[in-house]
Amino acid sequence: MGPFDSVGSCSSSSSSDPEKSTTSVKKSEIDGQLAGAGYKVRLSDLRQVAKKLEHLENAMMNATDDVSESLESSDTVHYNPTNMASWLDSMLSELTPLPSSDFPQTPDLFPDPFATATATATATATWPPMTQQLVPYAVVDEEEDSGIRLVHLLMTCAESVQIGDANLAGSLIREMQRMLTQVNTSCGIGKVAGYFVDALSCRLFSPQTAAVSPGTAESEILYHHFYEACPYLKFAHFTANQAILEAFAGHATVHVIDFSLMHGLQWPALIQALALRPGGPPLLRLTGIGPPSPDGRDALREIGLRLAELAWSANVPFAFRGSPPRGSTT
């Protein structure tokens, strides 16, 4: 019987090995399925998770009404518990202290390398730029303070020049020239302040000579350049012309009196707008009042001729009359 016993024992042991291997294969397959579904838990740990669930249920049954209501009314919904054990620990900690001996902390069985790498890269990439950004903010604040101080110094310096206090004005100019090195003079307040400082310096330190007024032709050219560069006059003329168009809509004759004709730069836009009016342009009569020309020219007549040529080219009936101001000898 001995040999048979040995054979039987060998056969039984050999038959148990496939069962163990089959069980281990099933466990590994289940672990892989759990990991693929996003659950960071193994089959061997489910017993511990079940104990924690039972402990959580008992704790909720024995908890006070206030705690139970707060848990029931909580908006937290655990749709995808990727770490079931830690979630249960957090729930239990709200109800009762969790004994560490009964439920040891389950380690992260499937660490996410992408999350670790992202956290490390974020911590590495975020901290140095924050230290580097402190310097530009400090520079901007310093430039703003210098710009505000420049404005106050400019006003004080201009008042000193006006009252003839050359000593104070000179010291203020030197102070402003020093401050201009601390701000950006290519744009903004630094550029404007630089021009004003240069103008005040020329006014204060340049030799005083008799002012030579520019000629009429030069003054007209300068005024044209100013009109093209500055938007304020154009906007005022556009608003006035729009009011004229609305006031005389449907009328066959429009009579406009300009009490300060200057160079007549407002009226070309009105002539062009009247040329496009539905039903045809009306008759435009323009009476211009302006100062006499210093060199004796009939400047009003010249302006009227230029406007008449423009109106003729736009097929707008036009009549002009120039009138010097009352009391003029011209």
Automatic annotation (TrEMBL):
PROSITE patterns per record: GRAS
UniProt entry tagged with the keyword Transcription: yes
Motif VHIID, chain ranges: 254-258
Keywords of the record: Coiled coil, Gibberellin signaling pathway, Nucleus, Transcription, Transcription regulation
Cellular location(s): Nucleus
Domain Transcriptional factor DELLA N-terminal: 31-99
GO terms of biological process kind: gibberellic acid mediated signaling pathway
Bias kind Low complexity: ranges: 1-24
Source species, domain of life: Eukaryota
Coiled-coil segments on the chain, per record: 46-73
Region feature VHIID, mapped onto this chain: 223-288
UniProt-annotated stretches for the region Disordered: 1-31
GO annotations of cellular component type: nucleus
InterPro entries noted in UniProt: DELLA_N_sf, TF_DELLA_N, TF_GRAS
Family: Belongs to the GRAS family. DELLA subfamily.
PANTHER family cross-referenced by the UniProt entry: OSJNBA0084A10.13 PROTEIN-RELATED
Biological role stated in the UniProt entry: Transcriptional regulator that acts as a repressor of the gibberellin (GA) signaling pathway. Probably acts by participating in large multiprotein complexes that repress transcription of GA-inducible genes.
UniProt remark on domains: The DELLA motif is required for its GA-induced degradation.
Name by which UniProt lists this protein: DELLA protein
Annotated source species: Stephania cephalantha
Source organism phylogeny: Eukaryota, Viridiplantae, Streptophyta, Embryophyta, Tracheophyta
